[in-house]
């Protein structure tokens, strides 16, 4: 079995038939002439071969057991072996061919397989590419966002820069304006300096002339002084004659004075003793004392009308005709006037110094008959004045020694100087004023306070005026608020005196 080079499918089939014939020799030796089917599956194709079993092959095969018996049989066996070997060789070659064929046929399948593999790979690649593209798109979108933000920031920064540059421009303009003004001012200053220099020069010139004039005047004064000296000498000589006359005049005056003193010495001593001595008679007030002929100021004993109650009082026999009963006196601050109701009622202090006569006595006295009131005042500058009321009276203790005043005259104040008529008396322990406060405690003294009113002659006595002393010896309508007076005296006298 040798396949030809230019063998077609038919020759190949023929070869195959021979092959299969020979192959079948060993296995189906006893088979009769029977048709046999051979199926070959190659890929999608299947081939079917129908082969008749040749008879000579049968006979040959049937002869094999007979050959074993003799030497002819051995030669035949050798020939047959040779034939078989050849057949085997042919089969081998044929198998090689078949293999090649199968390989050729397989090539197409491999190509197909490769193509499908390539398709699959391409699809995968496309998928991967699509994924990559979508990722890239996402990244691009993000990048775009970031870019937009960056652009916004940049825009903002640019705007700020622009604003800054605008304000800088404004400042520069202002700076220029200011610089111009400074330059103008400098120019003005230069002009002024020039003027000043001119003026200074003029002044120097004037000063020179003035100095010259001064020198001339000085020489003139020297000359005049010399003349005055001469005149003074002449004057001294003339006045020495006058002084002799004056000395004689003085001596005459001295002798006259000594004569007058010796003449008046007797009666003066007599009146002094009257002042110090209490009078034996009973007097209701100082006016009565005065009328009885006691015209010296001093302490006298008074007796309340219709009673035996005696009260020591100081009588002022000099002021405005004399006969004044003194209710109060202050001039050195030696007595404390911040006292109780009872003390003001009975009186306190020393009659020869500072004192308060006593509300009870004054109340009873002024209810006996009509009295007038006089207040003497003096300040720290040497001025003095007075306030006088034509009618004055105090009600009883039950009415808090309420004051009544009428008919004002005087040089220090006006009708309401002492306060409103009808005010009650208050002390540090008896608040009868019209203030929610306690005026007596605030102004340190007993008085007819209003709320608290324009006067308080019983206030604190400071040494010296002490401006802004609001609790001092106060008389507003003469010295204003805060002024504390130097001395005070309150007198009463009968209206008919
Ligand atoms: Ca009060």
TrEMBL record:
Region named Disordered: 56-77
Subcellular compartments: Secreted
Domain Fibrinogen C-terminal positions: 277-496
Superkingdom of the source species: Eukaryota
Family annotation (SMART domains): FBG
Signal peptide: 1-24
Main location as per UniProt: secreted
Entry keyword annotation includes Disulfide bond: yes
Cellular component terms per the entry's GO annotation: extracellular space
Keywords: Angiogenesis, Coiled coil, Disulfide bond, Glycoprotein, Secreted, Signal
Presence of keyword Signal: yes
UniProt record, GO biological process: angiogenesis; Tie signaling pathway
PANTHER family recorded: ANGIOPOIETIN-2 (PTHR19143:SF199), FIBRINOGEN/TENASCIN/ANGIOPOEITIN (PTHR19143)
Any single Pfam family the record assigns to this protein: ANG-1
Protein name (database record): Angiopoietin 2a
Residue ranges the record marks as coiled coil: 168-248
GO MF terms, alphabetically ordered: receptor tyrosine kinase binding
């Amino acid at each position: 079995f040798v396949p030809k080079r230019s063998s077609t499918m038919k020759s190949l089939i023929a070869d195959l038939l021979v092959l299969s014939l020979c192959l079948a020799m060993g296995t189906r030796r006893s088979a009769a002439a029977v048709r046999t089917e051979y199926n070959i599956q190659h890929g999608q194709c299947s081939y079917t071969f129908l082969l008749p079993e040749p008879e000579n092959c049968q006979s040959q095969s049937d002869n094999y057991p007979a050959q074993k018996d003799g030497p002819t049989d051995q030669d035949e066996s050798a020939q047959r072996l040779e034939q078989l070997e050849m057949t085997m060789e042919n089969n081998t070659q044929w198998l090689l061919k078949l293999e090649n064929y199968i390989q050729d046929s397989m090539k197409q399948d491999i190509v197909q397989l490769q193509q499908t593999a390539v398709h699959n790979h391409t699809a995968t690649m496309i998928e991967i590419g699509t994924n990559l593209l979508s990722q890239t798109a996402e990244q691009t979108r993000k990048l775009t966002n970031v870019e937009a933000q960056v652009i916004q920031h940049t825009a903002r920064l640019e705007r700020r820069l622009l604003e800054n540059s605008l304000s800088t421009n404004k400042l520069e303009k202002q700076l220029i304006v200011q610089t111009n003004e400074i330059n103008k001012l400098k120019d003005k200053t230069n002009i002024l300096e020039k003027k000043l220099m001119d003026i200074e020069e003029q002044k120097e010139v004037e000063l020179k002339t003035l100095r010259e004039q001064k020198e001339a005047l000085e020489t003139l004064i020297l000359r005049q002084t010399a003349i005055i000296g001469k005149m003074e000498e002449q004057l001294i000589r003339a006045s020495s004659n006058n002084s002799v006359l004056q000395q004689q005049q003085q001596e005459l005056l001295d002798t006259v004075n000594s004569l007058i003193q010796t003449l008046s010495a007797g009666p003066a001593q007599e009146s002094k003793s009257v002042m110090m001595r209490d009078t034996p008679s009973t007097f209701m007030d100082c006016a009565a004392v005065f009328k009885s002929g006691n015209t010296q100021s001093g302490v006298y004993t008074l007796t309340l009308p219709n009673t035996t109650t005696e009260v020591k009082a100081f009588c002022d026999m000099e002021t405005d005709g004399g006969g004044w009963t003194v209710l109060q006196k202050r001039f050195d601050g030696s007595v404390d006037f911040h006292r109780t109701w009872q003390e003001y009622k009975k009186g306190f202090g020393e009659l020869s110094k500072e004192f308060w006569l006593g509300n009870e006595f004054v109340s009873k006295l002024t209810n006996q008959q009509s009295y007038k009131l006089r207040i003497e005042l003096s300040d720290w500058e040497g001025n003095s004045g007075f306030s006088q009321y034509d009618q004055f009276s105090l009600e009883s203790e039950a009415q808090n020694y309420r004051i009544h005043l009428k008919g004002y005259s005087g040089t220090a104040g006006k009708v309401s100087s002492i306060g409103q008529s009808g005010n009650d008396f208050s002390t540090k322990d008896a608040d009868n004023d019209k203030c929610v406060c306690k005026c007596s405690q605030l102004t340190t003294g007993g008085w007819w306070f209003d709320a608290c009113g324009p006067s308080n002659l019983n206030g604190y006595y400071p040494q010296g005026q002490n401006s802004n002393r609001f609790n001092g010896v106060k008389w507003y309508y003469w010295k204003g608020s805060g002024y504390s007076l130097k001395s005070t005296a309150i007198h009463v006298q009968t209206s008919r005196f």
